[in-house]
């Protein structure tokens, strides 16, 4: 079985990338890959998705932990805010509005009264 991590490294070395969006793989800059690469990716789709899913979970956990510990925020708040940080902007919402929303959420957490961990 092929190593999905090495497959991703190889794809990225060509200047392309694979991302996981709504449990679907999306190939970015596919024109930079050799012609046979698409078939190879399709054969290893599940393994690649598993690696990307784990990467997303690890990044989410790290982000939530930073918000919790560095910000002195309750874990539930940290996880909810981290979910928004990892979300794709909803359709119909422009970039400025989404940026304002995320910044406002962060400011609310930053400005909340200090809480004890007990």
User: How much helix is in the residues?
Assistant: 55-70%
What global shape is seen?
Answer: elongated
Which whole number gives the mean pLDDT? 88
Number of domains: 1
In short:
Helices cover 62% and strands 8% of the residues. The N and C termini lie far apart (48 Å). By secondary structure, it is mainly alpha-helical.
What would you note in describing this structure?
- This protein has 118 residues and is mainly alpha-helical.
- The chain has one domain (4-111).
- The protein contains five helices and two strands.
- It has a two-stranded antiparallel ribbon with strand order 1-2.
- The N and C termini lie far apart (48 Å).
Tags for this entry?
118 residues; mainly alpha; two-stranded antiparallel sheet; 5 helices; elongated
What is the element layout, followed by pairings?
Elements: H1 4-13, E1 17-21, E2 24-28, H2 37-43, H3 45-71, H4 75-86, H5 95-111
Helix pairs in contact: 1-3, 3-4, 4-5
């Amino acid at each position: 079985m092929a190593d999905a991590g090495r497959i991703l490294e190889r794809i990225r070395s060509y200047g392309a990338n694979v991302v996981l969006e709504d449990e679907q793989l999306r190939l970015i800059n596919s024109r930079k890959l050799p012609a046979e690469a698409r078939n190879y990716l399709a054969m290893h789709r599940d393994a690649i998705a598993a690696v990307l899913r784990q990467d997303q979970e690890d990044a989410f956990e790290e982000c939530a932990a930073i918000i919790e510990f560095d910000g002195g925020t309750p874990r539930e708040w940290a996880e909810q805010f981290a979910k928004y940080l990892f979300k794709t902007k909803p359709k119909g919402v422009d970039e400025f509005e989404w940026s304002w929303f995320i910044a406002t959420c962060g400011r609310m957490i930053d400005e909340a009264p200090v809480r004890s961990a007990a």
